[in-house]
Amino acid sequence: MAISNFIPQVWSARLQENLRKALVFGALCNRNYEGDIAQWGDTVHINTLNDITVRAYTPTAAIADPEQLSGTDTTLTIDHGAYYNFYINDVDAAQACADVMDAAMRNAAYQLAADAENYIITTIRQGAGKKVTAPMPTPQDGKLYEKLLEIKTTFDEAGVPRYDRKLVIPPAMEAMLLMDSRFITGSSAAAEHLAEGAVGRALGFDIYISVDLDDEIIAMIPDAVTFANQITKVDAYRPEKGFSDGLKGLCLSGAKVILPDAVLVCTLTA
């Protein structure tokens, strides 16, 4: 495996592709500011336009002076990093039947994906505008669907747009929903309305499964959470000792809840 054949741009692009495929929450967040990442500590200022005043019109009275547009500034900080650093012995690489480097890169991508997923979930837990608790439902009592109905009502009352609502549940809760006839799945009509990666629909939510959740239900819309992720460095090198090819890479991320009222975390208790 000649080190001169290493092309950083090719490896970096492949790693980014694998990382996105392995993510659940990363795919649900918006990625509007991803191109602005360059280094650790970078900040992106996100402006949210405040409501414009609408006044009653009277034909015989002058209209009010124009108001100046104003907005709320939210800062997305690139404050999370993860890296890999491994080497492949020249003898091992020569004897391997498969492409060792390609397999190692795929594995590195999966590990970075798990790290990024946990980072996003932690950010959502901290920044959610709605945090509630509820008893853990059972397959027999049908209470899970009722809890989803309460979440829907909470979103409706907060004015959260009904379009593109997402709901993430742990794997065990999928079985509860599949036993409930009110849960839409399986039919061709339902499939037409499912977002990519969703396992079903209920009460206006596309429902996803995350193995990183055990006793939580997370509801959100993509516009509410932004996630920026970039492979900023990929270096090949020859370790000083031994005869091997080394490869190291750095992945920088930032996540932010920018619309707290459109994110809800429901913790289920025994």
Describe the model.
- The radius of gyration is 24 Å and the shape is flat.
- Helix 1 crosses helix 4.
- 30% of the residues lie in helices and 30% in strands.
- The N and C termini lie far apart (55 Å).
- Strand 6 (200-202) and strand 7 (205-209) form a beta hairpin.
- By secondary structure, the protein is of the alpha+beta class.
**Average pLDDT, to the nearest integer?**
83
* Overall outline: flat
- Residue stretches low in confidence (pLDDT < 50, at least 5 long) are none
Percent of residues in helical segments?
25-40%
Report Rg. 24 Å
User: What can be said about the biggest beta sheet?
Assistant: 6 strands, mixed
H/E series, N to C?
HHEEEHHEHEHHEEEEEE
Secondary structure layout plus pairing:
Blueprint: H1 8-22, H2 25-28, E1 43-49, E2 71-77, E3 80-89, H3 90-95, H4 100-127, E4 130-135, H5 143-157, E5 165-169, H6 171-178, H7 188-192, E6 200-202, E7 205-209, E8 216-220, E9 225-237, E10 244-257, E11 263-269
Task: Offer a quick outline of the entry.
The protein is α+β, with helices and mostly antiparallel strands and 270 residues long.
Task: Sum up the structure in keywords.
alpha+beta; 270 residues; 30% strand; three-stranded antiparallel sheet
